[in-house]
Write the structure tokens for this entry.
Amino acid sequence: MDKKLKEELNKQINEEIASAYIYQAMAAWVENKNYGGFTKWLKVQAKEENIHADKFYTFLMDRGEKVEFLAVAKPENDFRSVLEIFEKALKHEKYITARIDKLYEMAEKAGDNPTKVMLQWFITEQVEEEKNPTVMIEKLKLIKEGTGGFFYLDKEAGKREA
């Protein structure tokens, strides 16, 4: 495997673990506000990010490559609103999408077909990863925090399954 591609795939494990950490911090903030549905939504998202990290880990191991774990940065812990949380989630997912796209370009340049095939799953997954917070943002912009509509949306968010 191309050395630089391997380094970036290892870094992506870190990015996915950091993503889980970010979503856990967001979940903690909404849980402190007693928004159980949004808490569940964000915890489900955190679990998904750990699954993504494991997919990169397994892929590298299956290819006989060494996996190196990097330090995870402290996530933001204080937010102004639930809307801000989902706006930051969307911004973060767009960052991850850009990284996945760059990894695909690197694999293509290196002629690494197995990596390209593995990354296809992530390319498809990122469409959903950006759609989910976008839908929440659109709904949150229609209602005011603390209203009946807000609490209904919180309840609906709690129905999310992994």
Remarks:
- The mean pLDDT is 97.
- The first helix runs from residue 3 to 32.
